[in-house]
Write the structure tokens for this entry.
Amino acid sequence: MLGGLGGLNPKKMQAMMKQLGMNQEEIDASKVIIEKIDNTKIIIENPSVSKVSVQGQESFQISGDIREEKGKSGISKEDMEFLKKI
């Protein structure tokens, strides 16, 4: 991911990132699951995951084969309507 940018080799790129307070770490993951509030799941198979730290803030970059699963809450529509009224 770091190679090929402006013709810099990966080691030089990482040294520059470190000088700027940036650090990147590859994470060996087999699957990433994001559970949304509406009970839907985004599932990423065969992911490429990188953790990027910049001045104490961490973020993740994820790519892979993505699919989405509709949530099953186990609660009927009638029960949901009743709960909304309470």
User: Anything to note?
Assistant: The chain has one domain: 5-85. The beta strands are 22-27, 31-35, 41-54, 57-69. Residues 5-85 form a domain with the Ubiquitin Ligase Nedd4; Chain: W; fold (CATH 2.20.70.30). Residues 28 and 49 are 7 Å apart (CA to CA).
